[in-house]
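Can anyone check this?
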Amino acid sequence: MAQYQYPYRNPLAAASQPSMMVPTESIDQPPPPPPGGFKAFFANALRPKKSRQKLRKKSSSVSLATTAAAYDDTPPPPLPDLAPLQAHRAKYGAATARLDTQLGENQDYTTMIHALGLTEPFETDQSRRPEDKDRPPGEPAIASLDAELWAKIAEYLNPCETASLALASKTLYRRLGRGPWMVLNEPENYPHKIDFLVSLDKYLPHHLLCFPCAKYHVRTQEGQEKLQSAKVLNPLFNCPNARNVLRPAPRHRLTPTYNLPFTFVQLVMRAHRFGDMRYGIPVDSLGRRWKSNDWSHQTRYLIHDNGHLLMRVVSTRFADPGLTPSAMRLLLYNRDDYWPYFSVCAHWRDGELMDVCKCALGHIPKPRETGGYQAIEHRLRDALAARTYTPNTIITLCSKCRPKRRCPECPTEYLVEIKLTEDRSDRNRIQFRHAIVVTRWSDLGDGTSPGSSSSPEWAACNGEMEGYDSFQRLGRRALSGIFESAFTHDTIPGQRIISLNPEGKKLGEDGNGWY
């Protein structure tokens, strides 16, 4: 039996018209027009339009009672014991529960680390931790031990640690006396004295440690220090050994006309380490661009997450095709000290760096002969091979000079390339020429001290440390990748890294392969 429903009725005509039952399968029809009159006028005016008439959905022939009866035979699914989130937590707790059956201790490392983070702050600087005012003073406990016992304790410490112990309190200074300071001033204990003075760096923002004098000097250009050429004397403090050749200040050679004094590394790393620009200068202030001997150089620096200063030096020079071996030497070597014009570490003679540069220069294409039968022969060969010769082509290097090279004795990497560069020497002419580009990446250490104990990277780059294995310390991650990943607009080709000295020969100037 079909179900019926009331159609739309006009409220004004509802009293005069009887109710009608319309089947749901049909479209709602408007009521018949009433007889004329005042009421009929308003009924026709308020009648809905045909566009507002909507089709009604057909009712299902199966009743709800029939549908409910069909599902009465199927039992409902059982409810879960726990909610999904609680069930997941219970499953994770059962899988990661690490309880010692003997002691009942929780061996879950995640829980242990979280507990340490809530109870103890991960602060490396002890001076920033809040002081415990309820802690009883330790002076009576220190004074309870006689001077002879403290002297016995100091015998197990090095001069730096003994001096730090004597500086801890007045009671310890009275027990130990002036002996630790006198031992620290001896010439053979110079490295221990430097380590002791470096520990006082955070208390002297207006001073800078002078390594030739082993003293702190007042900064004369505080906040205005700028890196200048090696030909300019640029003292950052008044030092009596500024012109003493026997006791030179630590510095690293970048190019024949530029050096990097260790004092600038100190200023940059102190400002980063203590988070205050009163201690030094920003790292971006070290970047420079300069030209010398037809070479263009560009330096950039980066402070890595491990607290080390990374350096990149890019050296570029135009090169002509078909250079002879003597012309290559004139292009690569400085005649004053026979070092390369570009930036190198102290171990460049022991490896294949110069052979790689000469091999890359040999890949620059030579121009064709323009006259005679030789030109016709070249044209026929190019036509048969379906190729067109042009001197301004992008060069692909060979397997010898293409990979990046890593020095095995210091954290330094090199990349030699031949690029097509615009020559702007003539403003009225646009010309592109091939240029050799030598890029160097180096790790200069944490900037605390140039000695091998505290900053082995700086000493290794300057050739002052033996036994430094860069492949073991750096691992598989390249310095070039670490540096270039910090700057998204600078990219390098994905080349493999091989050793700069695969044979492991250490001949230095005695060998003849470097020239």
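Reply from J.R.: I decoded it. Residues 284-363+398-510 form one domain.
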